[in-house]
Structures are given as C-alpha cells and as structure tokens.
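Journal club prep — side note

Before the paper discussion, L.F. wants everyone to see what a predicted structure for a comparable chain looks like in token form. Sequence:
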Amino acid sequence: MPYNEITAIKEAEATAVARIQAAREKSEERIRKAESDAALMVEQRVEEGQREVMRLHLEAEGSALAQAGRIREEARITAAAIKQVRDQNMAEAVQYIIDAITGEIDVSPAGDEKSAHRDS
C-alpha cells in the first residue's frame, strides 16, 4: 500500500474518531441537559405539591373557623333562649310565692290538718 493511501486511511479514521467523539460529547451534553431539566421539573413538582398542601391546610383551617363560628352562634342563641325561659320561670315563681303569701291562692295540700284548722 502506498504511503498516500495509508495516510488517507489514517486521516479518514481520525476524522471518523473525531466525529464519533463530537457526537458522543454532544449526546452526553444532551443527557446532562435532560437530567438537569428532569431535576428542575421534579423540584417544581415538589414546590407545587407543597403549595397545594398549604392551600388545602389553609382551606381546612378556614372551614374549621367557619364551623366554630356557627357553633358559637348556635350556643349564643341557645343560651339566650335558656335565659329567657329562666327569666320567665323566675317571674312566675315570684308571682306564685307572692300569691301564696297574700293568700290569693291556696297552697295547702288537701287533707292537711293545718289547712283544715285555718279554714275553721
């Protein structure tokens, strides 16, 4: 084989090796970029998940506060109704005692010796 052919083959081989190396480096760079993009996407998904968890947490707190407000209002209404009934019962009890003291009503049990004695 002549020297020129050997040189041409060596140059072709060197060119092929250089192209293969360049393609390999380009592929490795694309792989690194894809890995970087994937890591960034994972990080973004984690952040989105954390934001969603926080949103749900705040929503649950808001719901709990609203429920507590409704319960508090129901308790206030119930307490007001109980107070009104108590005040009404108290007024009736006071009136009953006054009527009993003044003799407007007979509070003695039937067949009581004292009440029979008072009637005579």
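L.F.'s comment for the group: The chain has a mean pLDDT of 90. Keep this in mind when we get to the figures.
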